[in-house]
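Review form for a predicted model. The reviewer records the input and the model, then writes brief findings.
Reviewer: anonymous (R2)
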Amino acid sequence: MNASAVQREITESRPVKNLTNGNGAEPANKEPKNPEPLIITMDQIKPEKVDWLWSNRIPIGRITMLDGDPGSGKSTLSLVIASAVSRGLALPFGEKPTAPANVLLMSCEDGYSDTIRPRLDSAGADVSRIVIPNPKRGPSTSMLNPSFIEQAVKEAGPALVIVDPIVAFARGKNTDKANEVRELLSPLMSIAERHALACLVIRHFTKQVDARAMYRGAGSVDFMAACRSAFIIGESDDEPNMRVLAQVKNSLGPKSSSLGFYIDEKGFRWGREVDTDAEGLLTASRTDTRRKEKHQLEAARRFLEETLSAGPMPSNGVKAKAKEAGISGATLWRAKEVLDIKASKERGNLTGEWWWRLP
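Model under review:
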């Protein structure tokens, strides 16, 4: 008997009932005795009450987004919230105090020793309850992965996780693509739900000042779609020194009123409720931005008229003087176009340098 015949006889004589699915259980081709139905009716779904870390603002078991310009106070505000959680203090307005709880803080823009710790101390945090990735283990950005977060949450049992900013933890993912944003946020969403914790993620604004509040944050709109609550921070139009926290989205309840707050030499302090929404806040910001841009353009125009009034100058010399005067390159170029300034090379100039002259 040849080898092929021996193999065929062994195969045909092997009892089918001994085949398993790899777990020593049922045969691989045998269906479960009680398979789950393909569809069910909604009466089999039990309604669940939404719990809040901060009523109608930061839900437990979900992601909350906070957007704003660099320097608007996003990180400071997040640390104030973390401090309140660490001490079990009430957040405004009219919230009841709760038991002190831990906070997992993942930040990559501010130093833990020179910036974050002083801010936490200023806010009165119980820093023994603020948990961070061990800096000796490497940069924080390498640690935003499902296994690290899961382990950290199991060890610390936090009520709140803060990721600041979320795009810094993308780890090679394209945050402008919806599917890659989902890959980034899905682990956070799952962990927040399974461990009943709140997750606050922070983003910067884009430069698209005319965009609606829903689309001002950097990256794909799927960031906003994945979160259940979202806020922006902007400067108050009524009080120059007051900043405003305005809710853009609340999928789990009514939108909350906008809140004012201050960050100055006295530290952080809450202000009053503000009668404006997120869109109104951005509209005022756009108006203020355009007013500043108009003022800067006018200053650049006067600078060029005065600088070139005596005759042509090398463009590099004009740019150097403009920089000393605090005029940006972009504003200088816009003023050049407004004045219709001509640029040309002088005859006999071997360096090929461009000269600017008034028309």
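Findings: The longest helix spans residues 278-307.
Further findings: The longest strand covers residues 243-250.
Recommendation: see findings above.
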